[in-house]
Specification:
It is built from 13 helices and 18 strands. By secondary structure, it is an alpha/beta fold. Helix 1 packs parallel to helix 9, helix 2 runs parallel beside helix 9 and helix 9 packs antiparallel against helix 10. The protein is globular. The structure holds flavin-adenine dinucleotide (FAD).
């Protein structure tokens, strides 16, 4: 088949590699003129890494990545440790895959490079899809230039503001979640004794939390610092914020967080949106994946990983099924319950991380601390349902 893919983000590129590996011809149409991502980090958990392994791109993805020692939960003020879950040594043994921190630009380059090597010309930049049309035999992507490109399927991997989703479902807006994130990346060499630990570390506090981790073999510190805010600032990957406001938001917090905010050359301010689960993800020969159909809060670090899982499952089902409609039915039946559960889990974590008064902190973090001390296997087990999930071992269901 000839598969058209709208968007060369992590979901679109993974879908292209998965369809290409199964013998299909792919054309990825990306609106941006350069294949680039914001200079920020991404956590890729074992359930995502297993897909990369199956697609034969692990060595490219791992090249400049960082393997965190552990996952940690700490108090934002004072920095006392609540919980540590070992990752570096434990991840493969427990979940069957590595847990990596990657720079988004490195990941997009790794996936895009593999695609170009395998099917030259598959990736077309500066190509914006504005709408689609279809008949019984084909689907047509209409570009802003007036061109029309035909294929057998159209996969919408065009993100939270998906034009294809708007045509398919209607032009409603995603839901502002009441959270704003500050984002920064700073060389570790500039942070001295306040460099973040070599872990995926969540720092918790009243109505706010922060996440720190390392990128590029440990040489960069990545910060996502989230505050509750009634008003939504404009949504954009590149909107820069005011340093004074960020430092005010994290007043009296650990010097690890404040030093990154002070040293960051660019501080991005980013309103967080999600959507309630959608009724349908497909229309005839057109189907959605990733943020286009299930954007979520980043508080389980799973948005991109869910897009990676979607991509693999979709390509497998389309290759097995007699027609796109039955493949898409099976795809929605398999993927919706999982992505909805992860969406809900991410929303729950906002409450878990933002406890304010000392009593509720004690009631929440006390048992977590105790479980970590007495039952470390139990603490590990909390993530089994996410990280052990293996879409590459999926049975053939859509034949
Ligand atoms: C602060 C923060 C931290 C996060 N951390 C993590 C993490 O650690 N781990 C994780 O798994 N997830 C994380 N996420 C979520 C993750 O970033 C997203 O879920 C993921 O990027 C979605 O990928 P996608 O391919 O579906 O969409 P996108 O990455 O949005 O890609 C969409 C692509 O489509 C293109 N496009 C859009 N419209 C058109 C059009 N009309 N025609 C052609 N091209 C078009 C865009 O230019 C873009 O390249 C985080 C999110 C945030 C906000």
């Amino acid at each position: 088949m000839h598969v058209l893919i709208s968007g060369a983000g992590i979901g679109g590129l993974t879908a292209a590699l998965a369809f290409q590996k199964l013998g299909h011809q792919v054309t990825v149409l990306e609106q941006a003129h350069f294949l680039e991502e914001i200079g920020a980090g991404l956590q890729i958990s074992p359930n995502g890494m297993r897909v990369f392994e199956a697609l034969g791109v692990t060595s490219r993805v791992e090249k400049d990545a960082f393997r965190p020692k552990s996952q940690e939960l700490r108090f934002g003020k004072g920095g006392a440790r609540i919980l540590t879950i070992p990752l570096r040594e434990a991840s493969y043994a427990r979940w069957g895959g590595e847990y990596l921190h990657v720079h988004r630009a490195d990941l997009v380059e790794a996936l895009g490079g593999a695609l170009q090597d395998r099917q030259a010309g598959a990736l077309q930049l500066g190509r914006r899809i504005v709408s689609y049309a279809q008949d019984a035999a084909q689907v047509f992507a209409h570009l802003d230039t007036g061109e029309r490109i035909s294929g057998d399927l159209l996969v919408a991997a065009d993100g939270i503001r998906s034009a294809i989703r708007a045509q398919m479902i209607g032009p409603d807006q995603p839901r502002y979640t009441g959270h704003v994130a500050w984002r920064a990346v700073v060389p570790v060499s500039e942070l001295g004794p306040n460099a973040p630990p070599e872990s995926a570390c969540v720092w918790v506090g009243a109505k706010r939390h922060a996440v720190t981790y390392r990128l590029r073999r440990g040489s960069l510190a990545n910060l996502v610092a989230v505050v509750e805010s009634k008003a939504a600032p404009a949504e954009s990957w590149t909107a820069t914020g005011e340093r004074d406001q960020a430092l005010k938001d994290f007043k009296h917090w650990s010097p690890v967080i404040r030093t990154i905010l002070e040293k960051a050359v660019t501080l991005n301010r980013w309103a967080l949106y999600d959507r309630m689960p959608l009724e349908t993800w497909s229309d005839g020969r057109v189907v959605m994946l990733g943020d286009a159909c299930h954007p979520m809060l980043p508080f389980l670090a799973q948005g991109a990983v869910m897009a990676i899982e979607d991509a693999y499952v979709l390509a497998r089902l389309v290759s097995q099924a007699e027609n796109p409609a039955s493949a898409f039915r099976a795809y929605e039946a398999i993927r919706k319950p999982r992505t909805s559960r992860v969406q809900a889990g991410a929303r729950r974590n906002a409450k878990l991380f933002h406890r304010g008064d000392p009593l509720s902190q004690l009631a929440t973090y006390g048992p977590i601390w105790l479980a970590g001390q007495l039952l470390p296997a139990f603490a590990h087990g909390q993530y089994d349902w996410i990280y052990s999930h293996d879409v590459t071992q999926m049975p053939d269901t859509a034949a």
